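Postdoc handover notes: sequence design on the structure in folder B. Input tokens:
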């Protein structure tokens, strides 16, 4: 049984009780959790305010009355015959003066509430309550935005800093680091931009306080989500985005597939008069987008991925996940692309290593006259390294096997 000092009782701290109850109800926080936090803060305040000459009891507790809001400090002291440690020991006579049934060796709870502690209690309680309000708000913000990872949000540019841009996302601030900028894009205060949510951290120290929402403008997921927003067939799951290869700010290749034969996946993404893809292109500041028809057949997928170039032949080395593609002489540059971009994106899109040769180069490699090389752009031949061939040309796969990729290190067209 604890004995408290009547002089410390007051109704002045009743406001604390009301504040705790209101906060608990509004933020759905257990009252006892709040009272416990206040009591721990009061214990820390007591220790901090104790003068250096005084010894702080080893076993110390602070309680706050759940009805009045009064706070009391108690020290647990051992009852001994002769006191050697005043902070932690008490004589039997002193203990009995507090409570008559104490015996030698018992632990007595002695109130040591200092004068003026009520004011400290009120101030501390207010600080704890305000801190808990902030934590509760930040917790809700974290929960809300952590569910939006891998989604697209509309953001407003608030300010720019050396490490990136701080964005207004509504209830939270977002961070887009410079590494997530699209090359060539500039971001100005009050600009509205769409961003892809990479991750949400509960706390952080970089640029903003509270939950940190890290976003990107270069992630391929941004392209995927924008098409999901613009194309009903994708949102419904009828058209699927199988893969995306992107060099942000310049060009993107996206492979799509339809689960229904009656629906053209490429046409669905392009939209009537090209309005669907145009809206995505506009949001990406005129980034070029190639929409490719996906195929489970590697050769067909690779040929499609090299669009807009026509493909004459595809030689497939499945075990190495590598291939050699033959294109007309006048389309070699188109197939490779500026600085190798078209071939590079095709390789990323398909996951295959692609070596591109012109019709003349292929004829020389296989010791055939140019006119005997494949000529029909829409009816390209496919050859597999196990000697299963489709088409009627006389290319020898063993010859390809001997030569294939052997000059890759010296060939600028090889990825």
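Designed sequence:
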């Amino acid at each position: 049984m604890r004995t408290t000092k009547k002089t410390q009782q007051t109704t002045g701290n009743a406001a604390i009780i009301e504040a705790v109850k209101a906060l608990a109800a509004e933020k759905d926080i257990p009252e006892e959790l709040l009272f416990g936090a206040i009591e721990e803060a009061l214990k820390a305040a007591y220790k901090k305010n104790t003068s250096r000459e005084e010894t702080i009891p080893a076993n110390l507790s602070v309680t706050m009355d759940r009805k009045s809001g009064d706070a009391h400090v108690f020290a647990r002291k051992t009852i001994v015959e002769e006191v050697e440690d005043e902070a932690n020991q008490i004589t039997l006579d002193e203990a009995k003066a507090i409570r008559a049934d104490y015996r030698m060796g018992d632990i007595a709870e002695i109130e040591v509430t200092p004068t003026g502690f009520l004011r400290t209690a009120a101030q501390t309680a207010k600080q704890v309550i305000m801190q808990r309000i902030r934590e509760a708000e930040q917790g809700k913000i974290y929960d809300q935005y952590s569910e939006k990872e891998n989604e697209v949000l509309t953001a407003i540019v608030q300010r720019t800093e050396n490490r990136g841009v701080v964005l207004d996302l509504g209830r939270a601030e977002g961070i887009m680091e410079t590494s997530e900028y699209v090359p060539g894009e500039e971001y100005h205060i009050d600009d509205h931009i769409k961003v892809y949510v990479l991750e949400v951290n509960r706390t952080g120290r970089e640029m903003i306080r509270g939950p940190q929402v890290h976003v990107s403008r270069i992630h391929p997921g941004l392209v995927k989500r924008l098409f999901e927003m613009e194309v009903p067939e994708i949102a419904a799951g009828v058209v699927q985005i199988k893969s995306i290869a992107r060099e942000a700010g310049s060009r993107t290749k996206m492979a799509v597939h339809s689960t229904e034969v009656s629906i053209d996946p490429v046409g669905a993404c392009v939209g009537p008069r090209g309005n669907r893809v145009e809206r995505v292109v506009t949001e990406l500041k005129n980034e070029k987008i190639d929409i490719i028809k996906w195929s489970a057949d590697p050769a067909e997928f690779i040929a499609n991925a090299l669009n807009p170039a026509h493909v004459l032949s595809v030689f497939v080395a499945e075990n190495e996940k590598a291939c050699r593609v033959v294109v007309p002489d006048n389309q070699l540059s188109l197939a490779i692309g500026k600085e190798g971009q078209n071939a590079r994106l095709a390789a990323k899109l398909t996951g295959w290593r692609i070596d591109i040769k012109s019709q003349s180069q292929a004829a020389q490699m296989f010791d055939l006259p140019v006119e005997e090389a494949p000529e029909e752009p829409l009816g390209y031949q496919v050859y597999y390294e196990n000697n299963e061939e489709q088409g009627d040309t006389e290319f020898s796969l063993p010859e390809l096997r001997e030569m294939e990729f052997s000059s890759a290190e010296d060939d600028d067209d090889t990825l």
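Context for whoever picks this up: The chain has four domains: 6-143, 148-218, 228-294, 298-415. Don't rerun without checking with the PI first.
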